[in-house]
């Protein structure tokens, strides 16, 4: 690659670009690959230069001349500077190819000799630039990379635009970046070819900002802090990184309720405009900066009598943007508000908070401002803050409640009642509810460093365990310490034994241990009068009994649902409502399951219960998937994944469900990636239950992808894991039909039948009608492989009818597909058409593609099964099927599509067939078929 100009970059991918930009820039890549030009635009700090360098490194190949320039504001007054950067090093290569007048004009402009100007040498200079680019392009493609077009000197911009508009089919591409506000980029297109693609770079999401901070080494930031960085930066990557750097360099983190520290590098972006404000206008803006929803009326109530004129002055300077529909006051960018607050003296900040502590109409906001205006301990302020935290909790804002609770603790005297640590722990529990587990864990660890009261210590240990999520193995040393602190107190012991129930399930991988601990916790809680822990323990006991197929499960569910119920437990993700949902969906009651989980989701959202919301969105997705609404399920599963990754809660379960929905209604490769990611995360956390669930998703995706051997490996592991866990109810994971089908595809019909017999016994005992119908579908495939064609067809028809009545749309379609593969094709509409119709109704696109492939691969008039298999008695079932299809003239690819196996499997199977029949090639199989027909 020939690199010219003042900006030289190594040919490598820029890791920052990968974070949140690859999808956005895919169109730019396609445009460049087609030979077109691209203009990147967006506000300052949004990542245009990073994207520009990355694209340039990708497309600046060895056979391409790359001309670069990067303008700056301080040099924008120097004429022809950008032109010199672009052409100064290559002019000698093309000098002799230019007419004399053009050579003279160009040399004068590039060297400064002769005082060339556009007015004097206009046409000759314009033509010289165009000719120079054409001459370079004659030697090979040219890429012009220009950053910060807004600072390009006017003369260079005019010359570049003149040439760009006249390049035509000349292999010269422009890759440019320009700073813009809003969508105003049209005038910059004048310096680009007519067909240039304009790509606007927008704000990053919170998850993308988090990834960017981690990539730059600002790791370990609490999610609440990342949320504040995202809000303050407005999703601008440069601003976010500067805020992250300031936090990393600041030994004292901001106190609860206070804005983030704003580094000098960012303050400088707005302070020059702030300095143009009058003193009174600046004070008015400071009050607005601390208000939650500042309005002109609020500013008046806070004593800012000239708020209209002072905010108008700020708006003229670009600091404020007044909402057109009302008197609301909004900063042009959140960073302006943060910089204003950071620059203000401490006494001015307290004065602004004090003004709003009486002016604000909302009691929560008034209490927060009172706390930030007060120094030292103050029982009255602490009490008001505690009341405000309770109000926020009732409103479904646990994150706000946590922040207010910490403020209350800070202003609570050491001998107060309740004490400061008790209020801190309540704040930690609110943080858990809000999904801010990092904050909760930090609060609990802080309390444990000094707390002596057993109740406070056990409560803190419970927060530490809750904050660990599924990685309970990482806090294994906590349980004996918590038991020791609990002593003989039944209420405290109930809390610990409830967590030991989860440990038994997740760490020990033993449902029986989990059930026993949960029952003990429920008994202790009832003795202590702790209804909340009793209800949660009963719900856990009922869940384990349901999955174990235990006969006491219905009775335990009734106990868990018995009055009195507690509202926050009723919609808890581990509460009786969730247990009842699981019972309903395992009992084939899909409409009731849907209405139940919808009600739970609404209440969890109303209460701001983040983990419960993630959980119930996932359960709703599962319900829609079982019902055959694959498109809806896919949307919900993706929403659950976004919520999980944003909050750091439930990532493994959400990845499992997303994998299952992708395999059914989206992209099979993505399904495999998500499933394997879930298995890896579960293995890292030592979560046996979700290792099993993740492998179930992987095995299903492998089956859909045609990898029968891989599906068998994965699902055999699931079988072994669930046997070890003590799970006997086949409705829990519903993987048995997939494993049996995969076993049939690789010729292991005996193992498939044994698996089906065991699963059928449990399903009949528990009354799992949906599972029984799926087992019938799989057993029909076993019978077909054994040559029992008519019995297989009859069993499939019966299974399809039962699945349709139960509302399992996707399983109904799969039964129709299996039926189509057993029935001979006739001219006109076929069974494949019916299967395709059912899959399309479900929006099960991967399955639709399978049906279409099978229909193409299936001959219209196949050899009768008996004739096809004559003489093949010594072969295994899969070997007979492959050999029979070869006799029909099918290619290896067609056989793979027909039998839903990989081409590699077909080849391996044929090798075994050749060996057993004593032949050498597929031609010998065809000859064998012809000889049999001749007889």
Automatic annotation (TrEMBL):
Coiled coil: 775-802
This protein's name: AAA family ATPase
PROSITE patterns with a match to the protein in the record: HTH_LUXR_2
InterPro entries: AAA+_ATPase, AAA_16, P-loop_NTPase, Sig_transdc_resp-reg_C-effctor, TPR-like_helical_dom_sf, Tscrpt_reg_LuxR_C, WH-like_DNA-bd_sf
GO biological process terms on file: regulation of DNA-templated transcription
Species whose genome carries this gene: Streptomyces guryensis
GO MF assignments: adenylate cyclase activity; ATP binding; DNA binding
Record keywords: ATP-binding, Coiled coil, Nucleotide-binding
Segments crossing the lipid bilayer: none
Gene Ontology cellular-component annotations: cytoplasm
Domain HTH luxR-type: 868-933
């Amino acid at each position: 690659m020939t690199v010219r100009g003042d900006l030289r970059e190594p040919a490598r991918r820029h890791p920052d670009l990968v974070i949140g930009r690859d999808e956005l820039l895919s169109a730019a890549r396609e445009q460049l690959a087609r030979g077109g030009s691209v203009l990147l635009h967006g506000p300052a700090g949004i990542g245009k230069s990073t994207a520009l360098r990355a694209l340039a490194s990708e497309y600046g190949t060895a056979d391409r001349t790359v001309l670069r320039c990067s303008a700056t504001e301080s040099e924008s007054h120097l004429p022809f500077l950008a032109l010199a950067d672009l052409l100064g090093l290559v002019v000698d290569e093309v000098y002799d190819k230019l007419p004399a007048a053009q050579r003279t004009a160009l040399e004068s402009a590039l060297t400064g000799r002769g005082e060339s100007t556009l007015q004097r040498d206009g046409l000759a200079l314009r033509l010289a630039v165009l000719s120079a680019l054409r001459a370079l392009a004659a030697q090979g493609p040219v890429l012009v990379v220009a950053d910060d077009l807004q600072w390009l000197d006017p003369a260079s911009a005019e010359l570049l635009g003149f040439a760009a508009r006249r390049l035509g089919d000349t292999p010269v591409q422009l890759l440019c970046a320009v700073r813009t506000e809003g969508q105003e980029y049209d005038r910059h297109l004048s310096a680009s070819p007519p067909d240039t693609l304009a790509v606007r770079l927008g704000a990053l999401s919170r998850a993308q900002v988090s990834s960017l901070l981690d990539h730059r080494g600002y790791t370990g930031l609490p999610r609440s802090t990342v949320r504040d960085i995202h809000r303050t930066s407005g999703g601008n990557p440069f601003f976010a990184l500067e805020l992250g750097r300031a936090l990393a360099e600041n030994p004292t983190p901001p106190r609860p309720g206070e804005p983030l520290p704003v580094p000098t590098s960012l303050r400088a972006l707005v302070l020059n405009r702030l300095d143009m404000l009058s003193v009174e206008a600046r004070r008015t803006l400071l009050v607005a900066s601390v208000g939650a929803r500042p309005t002109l009326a609020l500013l008046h109530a806070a004593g800012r009598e000239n708020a209209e004129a002072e905010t108008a002055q700020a708006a003229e300077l670009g600091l404020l943007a007044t909402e057109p529909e009302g008197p609301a006051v909004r900063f042009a960018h959140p960073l302006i508000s943060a910089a204003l607050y950071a620059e203000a003296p401490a006494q001015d900040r307290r004065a602004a908070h004090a003004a709003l502590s009486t002016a604000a109409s909302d009691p929560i906001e008034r209490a927060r401002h009172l706390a930030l205006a007060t120094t030292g301990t103050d029982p009255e302020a602490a009490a008001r803050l505690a009341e405000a935290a309770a109000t926020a909790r009732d409103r479904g804002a646990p994150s706000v409640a946590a922040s207010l609770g910490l403020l209350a603790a800070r202003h609570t005297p050491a001998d107060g009642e309740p004490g400061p640590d008790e209020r801190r722990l309540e704040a930690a529990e609110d943080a858990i509810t809000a999904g801010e587990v990092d904050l909760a864990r930090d609060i609990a660890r802080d309390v444990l460093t000094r707390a002596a009261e057993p109740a406070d210590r056990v409560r803190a240990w419970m927060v530490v365990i809750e904050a660990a999520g599924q990685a309970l193995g990482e806090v294994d040393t906590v349980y004996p310490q918590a038991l020791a602190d609990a002593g003989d107190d039944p209420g405290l012991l109930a809390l610990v034994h409830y967590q030991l129930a989860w440990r038994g399930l997740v760490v020990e991988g033993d449902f029986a241990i989990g059930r026993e601990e949960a029952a003990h916790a429920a008994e202790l809680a009832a003795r202590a009068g702790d209804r909340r822990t009793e209800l949660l323990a009963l719900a856990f006991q009922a869940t384990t009994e349901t999955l174990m197929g235990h006969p006491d499960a219905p009775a335990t569910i009734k106990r868990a649902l018995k009055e009195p119920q507690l509202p926050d437990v009723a919609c808890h993700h581990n509460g009786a409502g969730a247990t009842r949902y699981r019972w309903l969906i395992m009992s084939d009651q899909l409409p009731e399951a849907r209405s139940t989980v919808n009600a739970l989701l609404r209440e969890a959202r109303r209460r701001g219960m983040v983990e419960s919301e993630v959980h119930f969105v996932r359960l709703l997705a599962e319900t829609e998937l079982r019902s055959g609404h694959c498109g809806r399920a896919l949307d919900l599963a993706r929403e659950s994944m976004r919520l999980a990754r944003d909050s750091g809660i439930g990532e493994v379960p959400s990845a499992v469900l997303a994998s299952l929905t992708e395999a059914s209604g989206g992209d099979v490769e993505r399904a495999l990636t998500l499933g394997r990611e879930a298995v890896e995360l579960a293995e890292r956390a030592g979560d046996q239950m979700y290792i099993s669930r993740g492998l179930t998703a992987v095995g299903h995706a492998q089956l859909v992808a045609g990898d029968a051997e891989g599906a068998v490996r994965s699902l055999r592991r699931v079988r072994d894991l669930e046997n070890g866990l003590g799970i006997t109810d086949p409705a829990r994971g519903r993987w048995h039909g997939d494993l049996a089908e995969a076993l049939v595809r690789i010729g292991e019909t005996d193992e498939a039948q044994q698996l089906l017999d065991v699963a059928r016994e449990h399903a009949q005992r528990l009354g799992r009608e949906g599972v029984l119908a799926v087992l019938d579908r799989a057993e029909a495939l076993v019978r077909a492989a054994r040559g029992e064609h008519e019995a297989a067809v009859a069993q499939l028809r019966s299974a399809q009818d039962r699945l349709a009545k139960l509302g399992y749309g996707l399983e109904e379609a799969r039964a129709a597909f299996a039926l189509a593969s057993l029935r001979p094709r006739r001219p006109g509409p076929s069974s494949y058409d019916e299967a395709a119709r059912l899959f399309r109704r479900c929006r099960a696109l991967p399955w639709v593609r399978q049906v279409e492939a099978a229909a193409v691969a299936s001959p219209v008039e196949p050899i009768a099964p008996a004739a096809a298999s004559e003489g093949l008695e010594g072969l295994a079932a899969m070997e007979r099927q492959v050999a029979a299809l070869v006799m029909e003239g099918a290619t290896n690819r067609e056989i793979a599509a027909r039998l839903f196996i990989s081409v590699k499997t077909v080849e391996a199977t044929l090798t075994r067939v050749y060996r057993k029949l004593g032949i050498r090639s597929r031609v010998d199989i065809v000859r064998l078929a012809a000889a049999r027909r001749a007889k």
